[in-house]
Amino acid sequence: MIGPPPGVRVWLAAGPTDMRRGFDGLARLVQEVLGRDPFSGHVFAFRGRRGHLVKLLFWDGQGLCLYAKRLDRGRFVWPNAQDGAVSLTPAQLSMLLEGIDWRMPAWTARPEIAG
């Protein structure tokens, strides 16, 4: 996936979403449930009940784009809240889409001596 441009916020819709929804249904959820503008250029992420499917909805200036990804193994890490939205950084979104736990990423190696 191409990364979002600078200044774009990423919003995760807390709780499960009916993954049969398409452009219009997800845009309506953004407006009515999240209280945000689906045409703002921000990225809105939704996860299915089983946790292996995620959909991203965003406006690119010309139309709505819908990106979907299904994991072969494992689940996407999602907030425990049942309603509302959680804001992520673009880096956290990249980790989420790779199946990495974006909440507590661990450094693999830290420098011990400076200089």
Automatic annotation (TrEMBL):
InterPro entries according to UniProt: Transposase_IS66_Orf2
Superkingdom, taxonomy of origin: Bacteria
Protein name, as recorded: Transposase
Lineage summary: Bacteria, Pseudomonadati, Pseudomonadota, Alphaproteobacteria, Acetobacterales
